[in-house]
Amino acid sequence: MEALARLESDLKAQGHTTETALAGGPFILLRGFTVCSGRHEGRVVDLGLQAVPSYPHNLSAAVHVRADPPLREKGNTGDFNVIDSALGPDWQYWSFNLDAVWQGGLGPSLTALINGVMHNA
Length: 121
What we know:
about 20% helix; 7 strands; alpha+beta; about 120 residues
């Protein structure tokens, strides 16, 4: 659970309000996240990041997204593979190589990384 506490602490330090979800996880949830740019700019969604045991050196391979209506259809769209999420039927698992962008914590901040994913959604 050390990775979960560190991920939550890092997101809070970047100004996010967080909550934890242990079912199918552990996850840190960002409720009411406003997409700041791109095709879905202004949409308010819920996001989930799974806390992998090797965080902060590594990130999970996905962002979990809940939006009504969904931002993306399920399936492989070339840039994301969208499938069902462990967080439940209202959530989507957006497979994306977060770890490559994260670069072991040397890349962009978590907030910048999430904003980049949402911008390209």
